[in-house]
Design a protein that fits this description.
With 326 residues, the chain is mainly α. It has 15 helices and two strands.
Length: 326
């Protein structure tokens, strides 16, 4: 009879052999995919160089940072700048403006993208469908700086402004409106400009999801006497529901990312209280006022909130039994 010691040694040898086999198998798979690994290497290096290494700069949020001092000579202040953020009226205003603009842009972007995707999915004339797709996609490829210039020209506050000319010509208004000088218009201008620029591009995901819906469902609904609206409500929208949920979760991770260019270029003294967002606040305090610690703390706060909201939205979707990212 074999002793327990011999039995244990045999098991250890078998385990070691199995580990060696698995290791060889992994190296064999990696060897077959070496070209894919080499192709992905530049992108991995890009992420490391421009996304992870710069995180070293976050240490400024915990220092009374002075550019002329070395890292070891900096004075550490703990969470002083994070506490001070919430006593700064200007930061609280920028936080409010960021959330307000983001919610308007996100809500309008979702609704319009889904509606346009449903509309294009229902169009039976290929020529019209391609024309609408092309026209709606083109603004996405324009720089935000160019888009901002177009918006500023359209909304000029005198008779030369395109929108004012149209409204005056239709007798809807009696005198030109100073659109860019009215604080209550600013957030909506940002939101609708985002829709105009990105709505066509955002429909791509939903149109792709619609192609995965089984055509037999539409045929069965046709036999049952369902019209187009009932097909949309009971087949199309439920069919793209998982995609809508995933897109909403991803948007939750960008709730404090409004985009820097438009608010910065369109702002003026009359609308500054509603135009300054967190990114502008960081630029102002970091580069103009040289308060590097406070600016870095604001940037960290923005990213931390975005990550927390992403995880929260994913958790809610998971508990609700919906599609999720993680």
């Amino acid at each position: 009879m074999k002793s327990k010691k011999d039995s244990g040694s045999a098991k250890d040898l078998a385990k070691t052999e199995l580990i060696n086999i698995n290791r060889k198998r992994k190296w064999k798979i990696l060897g077959k995919q070496k070209m894919l690994i080499l192709m992905s290497l530049p992108f991995v290096l890009y992420i490391i160089l421009f996304r992870y290494i710069p995180l070293w700069g976050w240490t400024m949020a915990f220092q009374d940072y002075k550019p002329y001092k070395t890292f070891s000579d900096q004075t550490w202040v703990g969470v002083k700048w994070f506490v001070q953020l919430f006593t700064e009226k200007e930061f609280l205003l920028s936080l409010r403006n960021t959330v307000g603009m983001s919610l308007i842009s996100t809500a309008l972007g979702y609704i319009t993208a889904i509606l346009l995707a449903v509309f294009m999915n229902e169009v039976r004339y290929i020529g019209i469908k391609r024309f609408v797709q092309t026209v709606s996609y083109l603004p996405h490829f324009l720089s935000w700086v160019i888009v901002t210039g177009l918006v500023a020209n359209v909304l000029v506050g005198d008779k030369t402004g395109i929108l004012n000319s149209i409204l005056l010509g239709l007798k809807i208004i009696d005198e030109p409106i100073q659109f860019l000088a009215k604080p209550n218009y600013f957030w909506h201008i940002i939101g609708w400009t985002y829709v105009w620029k990105e709505v066509g591009w955002n429909t791509i995901v939903y149109l792709g999801a619609m192609t995965a819906i089984d055509p037999c469902l539409y045929e069965a609904a046709q036999i049952d006497g369902c019209g187009r609206l009932r097909k949309i409500w009971h087949i199309t929208l439920p069919g793209i529901k998982p995609t809508i949920i995933i897109m909403m979760i991803m948007s939750a991770g960008h709730i404090l990312d409004v985009g820097f260019e438009m608010p910065y270029l369109l702002q003026n003294g009359l609308v500054q209280d509603v135009a300054e967002i967190i990114d502008i606040y960081v630029l102002k305090y970091g580069f103009k006022l040289s308060r590097y610690g406070l600016a870095t703390a604001a940037g960290i706060f923005k990213n931390a909130v975005n990550i927390l909201l992403l995880l929260l939205a994913n958790s809610i979707a998971k508990k609700s039994g919906e599609e999720r990212l993680i």
